[in-house]
Amino acid sequence: MILDRKSEPQFKAISNIKLIKPEVDKLKNGISLYFIDASEADLVRVEFIFSNTQWSIDQPLVIGATNSMLNEGTPHYTASQLADKIDFYGAFFQHEAGFDHSSVTLYSLNKHLKSTLPIIKEIITEACFPEQELATYVQNSKQKLQVNQQKNDFLARKKFNQVLFGDHSYYGYNVQAEDYDKLSREQLLGVRRKQYTANNCTIIVSGKVKAEERQLITELFGNEDWLSEELLKVDQPLLKPSSTAKHLVERPDALQSAIRLGKPLFNKTHPDFQSMQVLNTVFGGYFGSRLMSNIREDKGYTYGIGSAIVSLKDAGYFFVATEVGADVCSNALTEIYKEIDILKNNPIPEEELSLVRNYMLGSFLGSLENAFSHADKFKGILFYGLDYDYYDNFFETVKTVTPQHLQELANKYLADDFLEVVVGKK
Amino acid sequence: MINFERFTLDNGLRVLVHEDPATPMAVLNVLYDVGARDEDEHKTGFAHLFEHLMFGGSINIPSYDEPLQRVGGENNAFTTNDITNYYIQVPAVNLETAFWLESDRMLSLAFSEKSLEVQRNVVCEEFKQRYLNQPYGDVWLNLRPLAFKTHPYKWATIGKELSHIENATLEDVKDFFAKHYNPQNAILVVAGKVKLEEVKQLAEKWFGPIPSGQKYDRNLPQEQLQTEARTQTIQAKVPLNAIYKAFHIGDRNQKEFYATDLISDLLSRGDSSRLYRSLVKEQQLFSEINAYVSGDMDPGLFIVEGKLVNGVEMEQAEAAIESELNRLKNEQLQADELTKVKNKIESTMVFSELNLLDRAMNLAYFELLGDANNYNFEREKYQAVTASQIQEQANKIFSSSNCSTLYYLSQN
């Protein structure tokens, strides 16, 4: 029999996507310890997640700096002793300050957890931010910012957030080097005391999580010794999009221009969020998207272009980002807006939509690699007060949303008032 | 530990199968034994440009991406100076689609003028985005020709210059395909929720009929021993002064690789590492500093690079790096510090094995290095390194006559 290489093999629809839901221990200080025990390998990830304290324009960097400097010294250990302890056991300590939450994460082999976890407790509850370390942090952070400010994509991202949200929230504030000089040890201590407390903490453990690991965490973090007397109160962020639609940051030597354009939307608690994710995928959310097909694969203007919908606690937005040859920047912009118009004026052909449905389900399945990924999916709903219904709805929406409905959404949410930032030359 | 089975098709294609029933996914990874080192000096950047063209449709299938996306799959590829690696991640129930697509482009490409023209542009934009339009983006374009005088590692994967890519012709593309893209020069790894028998049958069906082609016989000019220090100073539009020191080391298969790699960890891995602690935290000469090995298949480089704190003199900064390297040469390492870097290697490997794609790519790469099963002995090889071997390697590597130093001076 001659092999038929022209026709694609039979394929099957993707079904039975199984998410592993966490179990929960309620610790006596009120902390919820969620755990997903789903690993053959002897490793574990322990995440401590804290809601951010109130952001203030007088101290725009203090939330991030506090998080970054937690491991720079405690009353008992210097930064260098803390680093020795973590590194000696082959563990990884990560810290991250996002717009809404800050976290501290420990990756450890199970056999070393009893040695590494007490250090994390010490870091979270007793970090003391020595002056000398703060000075080094300020100096090196400013230098990193100086380097980043030479990068068009960095400048475009910062400017776009500023244009989208205004300067009066953590979401939109555009950091400048001199902001680092406003940091003081007292303020970092203040944020640590307010924010890094048991009342404000969620623990998510994934990997190989047996009774022993849970007990260890409970003994160290389940007591009342790190409760705070007052509950953290945070105001809604003040969000004010720019009244000017188009912004150009000129860089005369640029070989490429960074483009970022988009508009405010909603977060994942909104009923149209998942349908908009489908629309976004068609438009710019995967390698075969319309933006990639047109602007990279047909015109060759760029190495890459994409769009995304971002969900934050108190906001959401849609954006397109790319870096294109400076000489074709205007053409690229024209093509982006043209593709948006096509979404509004024409229903998506069923064949294309069917491809995107399968792609999205396959991609979701592929994102469930291990216990950590299941924990990430849980994080994706926990802080929005959503349940696993969210994912059931997602699968249902991906499978059934109609071209007509997507066209309606395009007209409703992608109307003409886009905010646009270009860094480079136009 | 990665378990696998291995067989070879009659046309010479080596196939490795790693079964992991715990995942619903499958990975199909094809490694071609060709990289930028195999290029003509006047047509550099070609291996990488070619990688782009592999997505421009094959002889029987006009679009590569679409059918894969339709069955829920994703794919990508990368090129280095040594290899070109393509991978597909797909729900395991649709594995055959991956075989169909991957085998057709090994059989033959569509060789379309339009695809070549577009991808020339795309790669030129990639060149600009990653190398020319970034502060310090062109470091490797400058450092490679300083460190290598004869070996093709003297040019970067992206190519020496834009014009080499702009001038590529369809004839060049066809020649390159005929020379390198055939079963004898490839390694196929299939991993995930798959069965050995199923893979055997699919491999025979889709890859079996492809003509074996010519075995590419690699014969590259080898680098002569460097005998004196080399330096180059570049005035650049960068915000901070920076220094890059490149020392020649052995190839990835040498037993000394493990001691050498651990040296880079001692110097710069984690906040407790020597360079970070001494030069960033204590002396505050650098705002960032890093040491790493290139891990190339031919003799490669050990790199120390850092950005200087504003106002610090280059001489002082460089002397401080040298003093740390001298400590490694002159003082034997304490047991605790050696245990520390070994522990980090151990946990890194355990964490890396969580990822199916990583496992598949490692099997392919180690098979190319000689035997995929050697991957399973990596941990032991690191564990076996002694303090005196570290000292011995440090003495062998860190001499000024073995070093090329690049200074970036800020014009700002």
Automatic annotation (TrEMBL), chain A:
Name of the protein described by the UniProt record: Insulinase family protein
Signal peptide stretch: none
Species of the source: Solitalea longa
Pfam family, one: Peptidase_M16_C
Peptidase M16 C-terminal domain residues: 182-358
Family annotation (InterPro entries): Metalloenz_LuxS/M16 (IPR011249), MPP/UQCRC_Complex (IPR050361), Peptidase_M16_C (IPR007863)
GO MF annotation list: metal ion binding
PANTHER family: METALLOPROTEASE, PROCESSING PROTEASE
Lineage: Bacteria, Pseudomonadati, Bacteroidota, Sphingobacteriia, Sphingobacteriales
From TrEMBL, chain B:
Any single GO BP term: proteolysis
Gene3D superfamilies, A to Z: Metalloenzyme, LuxS/M16 peptidase-like (3.30.830.10)
Chain ranges of the Peptidase M16 N-terminal domain: 14-129
Residues covered by the Peptidase M16 C-terminal domain: 168-344
Keywords: Coiled coil, Hydrolase, Metalloprotease, Protease, Zinc
MF terms (GO), sorted A to Z: metal ion binding; metallopeptidase activity
InterPro entries reported for this sequence: Metalloenz_LuxS/M16, Pept_M16_N, Peptidase_M16, Peptidase_M16_C
Coiled coil: 311-348
Pfam families: Peptidase_M16, Peptidase_M16_C
PANTHER family: NARDILYSIN (PTHR43690), PROTEIN YHJJ (PTHR43690:SF17)
Entry's family note: Belongs to the peptidase M16 family.
Protein name from the UniProt record: Peptidase M16
Species per Swiss-Prot/TrEMBL record: Solitalea longa
